Amino acid sequence: MNKSLALEKIRAFSPQIDKVGVEERVARFQTRSIKNESKMQGLKLALSMIDLTTLEGKDTPGKVKQMCYKAAHLHDAYPDLPTVAAVCVYPSMVRIAAQALKETQIQIASVSTAFPSGQAPLDVKIRDTEFAVAEGATEIDMVISRGKFLSGEYSYVFDEIAKIKECCGKARLKVILETGELATLDNVRKASDIAIYAGADFIKTSTGKIQPAATMQVTYVMLQAIKDYFDSTGKMIGMKPAGGISTAKLALHNLVMVNEILGPTWLTNEWFRFGASSLANDVLMQIGKSQTGIYQSADYFTID
């Protein structure tokens, strides 16, 4: 579908969101009871869906290497655990991560497009993305231009996403909406539709730098956008809530929601991810509790 038809379709059919209805539906997902056997399966599934992330100005090669080791060896006491889905780093750290994980199936994700603000000229964003891909990134997490979106320049946002998608080559593109800056659920839905029609392989809530980030309400709205697109086209789009998902309980609530809205086909790390730096530790503590009956101290786990 060309841009003009896509934008026309979005203007005509991108629905207004019933905020009260969304909150009531999300509340029901949070009250579902999960049997112990299903809980263990869910915890391991959540681990396999994590993009283990470090995106700080103080990142060093040593820190990235340590995180990559953890990504591949989550807890040596439990040999049947999966690895995480990916590590996510700045473009300057991609080569280090790719080298550290070359013997694994773990994906190398890199943020780009002047993450986290997105406040840079398009040619800078293009070079940022091309550099990350050339260094070995297999996934790109771009940010949209929220200022342009909030000014109503939807065509600009669409074109920027489409151009970055071209730069990705074989790398999959995750489009970060930064929902905490979009103000309304109506805007979250419209931005989701623009990203999807412009070529996103995944839509992602947040950078993790702005609060609120990955609330279940915004994730619900984004999942509905994915469902509507799939119902219309038959094409699957991935989802990545990121920022603020730090507990196993919240991760399981999200998985229940994904299953009920999109179905079990999306319950793999090919189509669903958690962007997180601390979630893995809480999930590991819950797995340890289920197997030993006691919680291990957080001191037994590395921070990254």
Indicate the CATH class.
Alpha Beta
Strand content: 5-15%
Helix content: 40-55%
What integer value in Å does the Rg equal? Answer: 19 Å
Q: What would you call the structural class?
A: alpha/beta
What's the structural domain tally?
Answer: 1
Mean pLDDT: 94
CATH architecture verdict: Alpha-Beta Barrel
Query: What ranges have pLDDT less than 50 throughout 5 or more consecutive residues?
Result: none
Distance between termini? Answer: 42 Å
Shape: globular
CATH superfamily: Aldolase class I
Number of helices: 12
Question: What is the fold-level CATH name, i.e. the topology?
Answer: TIM Barrel
Query: Order of strands side by side in the largest beta sheet?
Result: 7-6-5-4-3-2-1-8
Question: What's the count of strands?
Answer: 8
**Which H/E pattern describes the elements?**
HHHEHEHEHEHHEHEHEHEH
Most strands sheet: 8 strands, parallel
Could you name the key traits of this structure?
eight-stranded parallel sheet, 304 residues, globular, alpha/beta, TIM Barrel
In terms of topology, how is this protein built?
Elements: H1 3-13, H2 19-29, H3 36-48, E1 50-53, H4 61-72, E2 86-89, H5 94-100, E3 107-112, H6 122-135, E4 139-143, H7 146-150, H8 154-168, E5 172-176, H9 185-198, E6 202-204, H10 216-233, E7 238-240, H11 248-261, E8 274-276, H12 279-292
Parallel strand pairs: 1-2, 1-8, 2-3, 3-4, 4-5, 5-6, 6-7
Helix pairs in contact: 1-9, 2-10, 3-11, 3-12, 6-8, 8-9, 9-10, 10-11
